[in-house]
Write the structure tokens for this entry.
Amino acid sequence: MSNKIGVFVCHCGINIASTVDVEQLTKYAAGLDGVVVSKDYKYMCSDVGANLIKDSIKKHKLDGIVIACCSPRMHEHTFRGVVEAGGVNGFNLEIANIREQCSWVHEDKARATEKAKVLIRGAVAKARLLEPLEPSKVSVTPTAVVIGGGIAGIQASLDLAEEGHKVYLVEKTPSIGGRMAQLDKTFPTLDCSGCILTPKMMEIANHPNIELLTYSEVIGIEGSIGNYKVKIKKKPRYVDLEKCTGCGDCVDACRLKGRVVSEFDMGMGKRSAIYMPFPQAIPLKCTVDSDHCLMITRGKCGAGPLCVEACEADAIDFKQKEEEIEVDVGAILVATGYDVMDPSNLYECGYARSDDVITTLEMERLISSSGPTGGEIVCPSNNEKPSSITFVLCVGSRDETECTWCCRIGCMSALKQVYLLKEKLGDDVEINVCYTDIRSFGKGYEEFYRNIRGLKTNFFRGRPSEIRNVDDHLKIDIFDTTTNKLFEIITDLVVLVPALVPRADADEFARILRISQSGDGFFLEAHPKLRPMDTFVGGIFIAGCCQGPKDIQDTVSMASGAAARAANILSKKELESEPLVSCVDEEICSGCSVCVSVCAYSAIEIVKEDNGKSYAKVNEALCKGCGACVGACPSGAMQQRGFKDKQILPMIEETI
Amino acid sequence: MSIVDLTSMGESQAELREEINDRLSRLQDEVSDYCFQCAKCTSGCEAHKLLELEPHKVVALLKRGLIDELVNSDVIWTCMSCFKCRERCPQKKVAPVDILFALKNMAVASGKQIPGKYTGMLQSILSIGLIQETQSVITRDNKTNKREDLGLPAISKPVDAAKFQMVLSKLAVEKV
């Protein structure tokens, strides 16, 4: 109970003061029951404003504070600190939001002022009944799980491991490396992608603090910030990792050698049913593809599996079963990456109609010396060297019917491939680029673009309408807005630069982790500028392209940032948890368990006493303070601290 | 403050622009403001050779409010209304074809001269359902072919001409 209340009205520059008469408001507040002091100031969140509050608390021995200012989402935390510094419990503070809920949404000053008075009256009514609260402490498990073994996951794992935290790195495919491992060279410096990536992959394999779980998936999480239990499914590899030496004899022996489409080569090459995705794979172990291996799909493979015969280490074990493990961690870092849009959705691109219409990632595998053609550039339809190659940018990107966003890497990756193709094929191959805008925004990108413009490349500013098969060529209609002419390009090979899209399983994965997605389906950051690596769930962070399209530079920066954010939690022994959570009056509670069924965080359980009485019990570490149980409770036994019925009802009474 | 077109000394007709955009918004939510001039419409335009203005320019002129230049061009009558520009637009159907329909209707309403050929075509549509009685096709590269040579079926005529005309006139009332 507070009976000496101070009211502080903020002008927020002119944000509030231009629509609300702050002087009149301050005078009005001074006359309210229990208010002993009422003051206004231009910026209450400034140092001067904070001192004004602190001094008033001491001078008038205040025990309840009402601040009329912006939304509590903005400055409640700041003002709690100020109030604490003044010597009053931070939870004896009530914010009256007279900016977002008043001055910003009204024009009539007189009526806006009246509404602000009502809001303050309500806040003061609640402030009279506020109780001091203390945050409870929870211990922290100093380990982390990183989901996704691409460059983002690799960087984040190494950063966390270097700080001394144990890291579980979970990767869905047989090897870490991700998309970056599929690339030949990287823009704008033309570093060999493998040369800069594989040292980091080796570090992951050898780091004492990193436990690598490849061919595994996260299937569930429980718990909350500081203490998560992560359930991981280890898919059967049918190869004993201890025994396999990675010699590859089994790959050569496989009956299906060269008959299974290689996902690492983006369908440009074939592999065996037992395979190693690429020569620098980590771990350098073989994996049996259970969708194709005859032993698994049909239960027999000729007279006997040739791979088993070929394996000298006796590592192949068709009896392996799926395993589930559970790890305890304090933080979760999500770095699950992106998919490339399937251009077949856009009929006019001709992707589904011709083998010679490919995507940038497919071209990357053709260019790569470890790719299916050993780095030779050939048309997939006839294995002949093309005499003309045409790039089409923004396929499905910046398109209201497909993906509304810019893929951020399309322009630069196409320009890079132009350079690499010129290097490989020389000037006798014609290269055309159809672009809408070239977005070369990064450091060194514009310089790279300028260099490419000097390489005898035909740039067409416009979007092709259609790519057609005509005889054994491809024809493209393109209106070039720089020359104002409609051209027909006759070409051998078309490279589409498709949009980047969220992973196919992003929706389901977001549900498992209980994190949000933005409208485009990528995982949503807590704040686009100030908390770009955080999610709305405490202790879960995001990095790389799972948050939105990014180049390697930005991905690595974000991964290091997210690792630092996670380390913030892991380096603490204990975390303070928000005390604004639910609590039960055990005397009133009948143990009906309605609250248990509405709780989205599994934070409530029913406890049975020896005498037969049962009641609900809230796990304060899990409770997020959403209030669902309070609304559902039929008896009023369930209350939320800081928002108890006896605090809220007088507030409502004063307001309406 | 104003923007002057030094090429033709044309002035922006803001009110007319609003009227056209208003007519367009009755058809769809988006108007010309969203066009970023990728020219995909022009890349695929079937009547490109015959047009005085390219489809993407039709949108650009509307954005600038240079309506006179649009109305005085024969583009509004030569568009063959295949709707490909509308189908393939990446900005959700900022369709030059719809702009041209709006302009056609406004031209008729204001009593502007309609090209003789056009009224002839209208008559032909009313009587036989086709703009001209022909079994030949002109391809994009200006070659004339017989329909049957291209393996296309013959075109049928309306069975009951009177009923057909009645339906057409009913439709014509619900204009853009």
